[in-house]
Design a protein that fits this description.
The protein has 81 residues and is an alpha+beta fold. It has one domain. Helix content is 17%, strand content 33%. The protein contains 1 helix and 5 strands; from the N terminus they run βαββββ. It has one helix at residues 19-32, and strands at 5-8, 41-47, 50-55, 59-63, 70-74. A 5-stranded antiparallel sheet has the order 1-2-3-4-5, with helices on one face. β2 and β3 (50-55) form a beta hairpin. The radius of gyration is 12 Å and the shape is globular. The model has no long low-confidence stretch (mean pLDDT 88).
Length: 81
């Protein structure tokens, strides 16, 4: 079993975050974060053995099992209005 972890957006992701996800996470943070105000947090969980990084805003980064590349999605259950 793998344990999840949390970290604040804009800080260095923990070592548990797979390298394949790091560029996508950095890109999201670059485009979504401002220099003011509190930053949302990321949560890394493992779903059926695959990593899922979810920002508190509902943006998710997953690994495509066919290609091994990071895919950015939005959680439809998170209301960001």
């Amino acid at each position: 079993m793998k344990m999840g972890t949390r970290w604040t957006a804009g800080s260095t992701p923990p070592a548990a975050v797979p390298q394949a996800m790091r560029d996508a996470i950095a890109s999201i943070e670059f485009h979504a974060l401002t220099d003011t105000g509190p930053h949302p947090g990321w949560t890394l969980t493992w779903l059926e053995g695959r990593p899922v990084a979810e920002l508190d805003t509902g943006v998710m980064v997953v690994i495509d099992p066919a290609t091994g590349e990071a895919v950015v999605q939005r959680d439809p259950d998170v209301d960001v209005s």
